[in-house]
Amino acid sequence: MGNVTPMLRSHLKNQANESIDTHQKALGVNLDPRRYGTFAEIGAGQEVVRWFFRVGGGAGTIAKSISAYDMKVSDAIYGRASRYVCRERLQAMLDYEHTLNLDRLREVRGDTTAFFTFADTVSARNYKGTNECHGWMGIKFQAHPRDDDSQIIIHVRMLDGEAALQQEALGIVGVNLIHGAFALHHEPELLVDSLLDGLNTSRIEIDMIEFSGIAFRHVDNRLMSLKLVELGLSGAAMFASNGEVLQPSEIFYRKAILVERGSFRPVCNVNLDMLRCAHEKFSQLPSVAGKEIVQVMEITMNNLKSEGQIDLLDFLARADVMATCGMPVLISDYSRYFRLAAYLSRYTKETIAITMGAGSLMELFDEKYYTTLEGGILESFGRLFKNDLKIYVYPLQNQETGELMTSDSLEIKPELRQLYGYLQDRGGINHLDNFDPECLKVFSREVLAKIKSGDSHWESMVPDSVAEVIKRKNYFDYRSDVSSQAG
Hints:
single chain, alpha/beta, eight-stranded mixed β-sheet, 19 helices
């Protein structure tokens, strides 16, 4: 434990046994003689550093506190920015202030001090209540004196209706982040779990987290994204094909969106053909033509938990096969499509489309899924299509008869036929006729069964890059010895 006071040792012992409040967390940091650094906060006052001043002992922790609220002042310190509440601005703040601390203080006290910089840039509720209330928050720190740097960045959405409450919540999250970085950096899952201590998800949403640096060299940020959704800290999280964590508002902002929901165990030729077909039709719409379209593969928590608890290795296998297709991945807790549509509508005013198979469309019209809604299926569809959302339906082929089930031939209950016809007539439900017939023979459950049994015919049913990663990493119970014997 090194140079740790008896009071701090007692504090750390207690924290291992029970959750501690914001006051105790801030005091625990102040009582740790190793921690010393800067607080830089823009946009919602100095809400985080206020805790460390208020609990006492702050002189031993706070090297500097700064709030460069004026844009020109902020630009003069951190460089010009097109936006002030963005990740790039936060990173500039962290890098600049942390470098200053090291340059000024390392030689004097570097052997006994682990330096840090906490920063946030936030847009809290304005006077008229017309702005998006969100912010970027992060900490760059040394886990131990003379250590290489580590970093945690999060994006928060503030959900309270009053600016004062938003600022209070922001201060608590900031203390949780700082305390977690120091006390729980060796257990990042517990760190994530602690971020809303003293709060709840009706006040703050954390929809992005990224760990980097030496203390987190073994952390897979895709698993941390999954953890955010699993814990309910966010309804959805997103990462790129290279595993980089994405912030949805920055990816979807002012862009048309095309989503394919699936299990992707594994990604099959039919999955890519479904996206291709939908993209061809979607891009021809007058409201979309010539505009950038973001294509996303989405997995729901219900799908990941279909066999009980989430299998993390299975999740990473799915993520890897999607990555080989160059697709960003959205993990969501929105099992109902209208909730997914509402989520995406937060970030764009452009047209949103969902592509699905005819079988999934049939389920969409099953009234048993809407018994908990006061307005039943009508409420669900009203919410789903209210922003002119488009559904593109890929046909389903009967493997025995060869007959195609399409959005035009779907058997709908008599009492729902008029509703169905209305949605078709207004362009809400659209048939995909530009499909590859060979892809109609591919079903993911059959591909998965062939992989497990060693039947090598599965390789022709998936993209080459997917087959390569499955064989190289032995995903989905693939075994090269069984496959070679079967072949």
